[in-house]
Fold:
Amino acid sequence: MSGVRGGPDAETAGRAVEEILDRLAAGGDRAACETAEELVRVLMEFYGAGFARVLDLLGRDPGGPAGEARDALLGDELVASLLVLHGLHPDDVPTRVARALSAVPHAVESAGFDPATGGLRLRLTGSGGCGGTREAVEQAARDVLACFAPEVTAVVLEAETEREPVLLQIGAGPPGPSGPTGRPPAAGAP
Structure:
């Protein structure tokens, strides 16, 4: 179960639990399958209650070391994914999306999220950073969003719009008083 930073992630763990439950169901022992599902529910409730307590304790001192620890935990991919899984993450979806996008190695920002479809549109915001194809940028965003905002199910990088070149106006001479020809008077003229 390896995540973006090399540790376990909620998506992989969830798939493994589903596979185990499916194998139990395929075995035909309905009682064993129901017992396993009940075990998963009880463990989820137990860990969820523990995470809720941790957030509560860390939230009591928002400006001190506990507040800093809380911020660090909310910024961690594994912890954030577990908090989202349990419905405990204190940030709303747009805040979690913004947090996730700040971890993408490309300069991107949200250009809109549709909660009905789960689609997130992105746009490039700078020219620096890691180069990459559209697919690489989209995949990097999907990877980090899976932890912080699993509500995002599709990521599309908007096409860059062509900018018209800036025209530089060049005059015939420096600004200043001009004679009938449109040019400044010659020095030493009578």
